[in-house]
Write a structure and sequence with these properties.
binds zinc ion, alpha/beta, Metallo-beta-lactamase, Chain A, 14 strands
Amino acid sequence: MNIDIIPINPWQENTYILSDESKECVIIDPGCLSPEEREYVAKFIADNDYKPVRLLQTHMHLDHVFGSQFVADKYNLKLEAHKDDEFWGEQTVEYAANFGMQLDSNPPAIGNYLNEGDKVKFGNSELEVLHVPGHSPGGIVFYSEADKIAIVGDVLFKESIGRADLPGGDFDTLVSAIKAKLLVLDDDVKVYPGHGPESTIGHERTNNPFLT
Ligand SMILES: [Zn+2]
């Protein structure tokens, strides 16, 4: 599996494009906000001959969904996310106004609910859905056992974890969910967070102050 990372928008949110030899790809957390950012993502996909077949969300916080409507429209995809984050999507415009931002619309409604244990297939590849609440109630991780990768959203960062003080968040839930769902994975599984650099499960097991 090939992983492209595009850090984007004022929050430097990592948009992920996962592809394989079939050239089919999934777009995870399209945070592209400005017309220029949207054009950049579309051109990147076109230049690589990728065929987007799924639009996936690790969660529905605003910096992860700025470009979701654009991607849904451009590639005719439905948005796939966990039901427990639906309320975040429905109040994106309102929430963005708190930051002085005027958005045109909320992201699309969730068109396919993803749940713990679901298999997300594209091309010749498969991702497993792990429900890891606490940063947001519907936070999910996309894990590939075969490729030893985990796209973790804002659940886990290199030597840190996501904030738990936003609506629906809970610190104890987050720490225990990370321990139960992620720290059980092999040390050499690569961790790709929603912001900042990648890490590994092994590195976090021994160096993450919230988890040791
Ligand atoms: Zn978040």
